[in-house]
UniProtKB/TrEMBL annotation:
Belongs to the glycosyl hydrolase 130 family. The lineage of its organism: Bacteria, Pseudomonadati, Pseudomonadota, Alphaproteobacteria, Sphingomonadales. Transmembrane segments: none annotated. Keywords: Glycosidase, Glycosyltransferase, Hydrolase, Transferase. One of its GO terms (molecular function) is hydrolase activity, acting on glycosyl bonds. It comes from Sphingomonas pokkalii. This is Glycosidase. Pfam families: Glyco_hydro_130 (PF04041).
Amino acid sequence: MSDDYLIFRPDDVDLTRSPLRAGVDEPTYVLGAFNPGFARLPNGNLLLMVRVAEALRDPVVGDQARAIRWTPSGYVLDAHPVAGLDMDDPRQFALKARSPRLLGLTSLSWLLPVELDAAGRAVVAVHYDKAIAPSASYLDYGVEDARITLIDGTYWMTVCGVSAERHCTAMYRSSTGLDWDLLGVVLDHQNKDMILFEGRIGGFFHALTRPLGEVYFAYPDDSPYLGGPSIHLARSPDGLHWKPLDQPGLRARKGSTSNQRIGGGSQPVLTDAGWLMIYHGVEKRDTVGIYRSFWALLDRDDPSVILRQEDTVPLLEANPALTADIAHQLYLPTPVVFTTGLVDAGDRYIVASGEADLACRITHIPKERFR
């Protein structure tokens, strides 16, 4: 096996064991099994917390488009008149003539724990009995994009909660990596990429964040930065109550091709040189954009100090050869790789990513690459 491969694909998901069977009787399929949280389990094996985006096989019936929603009594299908929708994006639809923009999803996401061997080269077990599905009103349209960090023997997992109430970040915690407790909302604003540092700084938890908004302001022409979504920092005394740092974090720079927006990828890990992190940058193209992975090094005592930011030569790019045998399942118009975690493997890092919003990719990267 090479050092860059797909480890888990949509067809690897057994939908007969999906939590959506509690209420959705109509045919569904896996739109994507991707963007996995990533950590090493106490037994030495690796954990992929895979985002399974499960969609209706026939989302449009007659003149109605339907979205899946969780309720305390089971899953239901909400109908929206097609005449009032824009449906250009296969992942979602937008209600016309609404400001602010209102969206519906063509799938509902839940999390599937997939256990790999210690080297990340084979699937050992798929833990359907440990799957994480919506269980609160702020998650009723899905649980998306887990990021896992191990701190002092405890696993912390952030997720993006999707609902009509709010687009928030929720926190789970575990002592085993497989049995998780939902701790509730930790960021009450739209924030896609909250990731905890793998260790405390000055006694505090620290995290990358990426708040989103409707409006951004321009930097002056002579600034090296571009306005738009960027990576911020926050700290907490307990992992639950977070204060943003006053200093800016990583920002999109004019010299990078992927500067439409940037956001966190892997959990920052401490090295002799500082906090190593992998993040994503997006180049504007079509509806979705081209996603690539880059890396940066932050000061070990003050992570707002950026020691190095490698944003011109990508660390990872989408690799069409990896998805050649499942190309018939591709639905995005542009190349996407979305890194979501890394673990230390001695002389290398094992990096987990979502490939094409479709499957889980594993890449082994020698540590020399980050020097």
